[in-house]
Amino acid sequence: MERIMGIDEESYIAANLQIGPTTLGMVRIYIEADGLELPLDFEPAEAEEIAEEILGAARAARAAGGGNKKGSVPGGAGRKPRR
Questions:
Q1: 19, exposed or middle or buried, with CB in 10 Å at 0-12, 13-18, 19+?
Q2: How far is CA 44 from CA 18, 20, 50, in A?
């Protein structure tokens, strides 16, 4: 039986992440990892809600002792700069 990873478990999968606008006025979050390409398109309002959730999670992680300086990524692996 395949084990499903939970939200609170560390992952060793490297992935590339790109975020940007599409020509149709959507916001695309594009994820590429291990041969998988996943383009996710959102209405601007949905993208703003996602951004708020990410900021909230970052604040909670920092409060829980995450300790990384604002904007840093451990090792810098698995993430490409936004375009």
A1: middle
A2: 16, 11, 10
| pLDDT exceeds 70 at position 43 | yes
- Sheet bearing 36-42, strands edge to edge: 16-21, 27-33, 36-42
DSSP category for residue 9 = S
Question: What percent helix, strand, coil does the chain show, rounded to 5?
Answer: 30, 25, 45
Rg (CA), the chain: 15
Tally of residues, the chain = 83
With a threshold of 0.70, does the pTM exceed it? no
Say how many C-beta atoms besides its own lie within 10 A of residue 17's C-beta: 14
Pick the closest to residue 44 from 25, 19, 18 (CA basis).
Answer: 25
In single-letter form, the type of residue at position 18 comes to Q
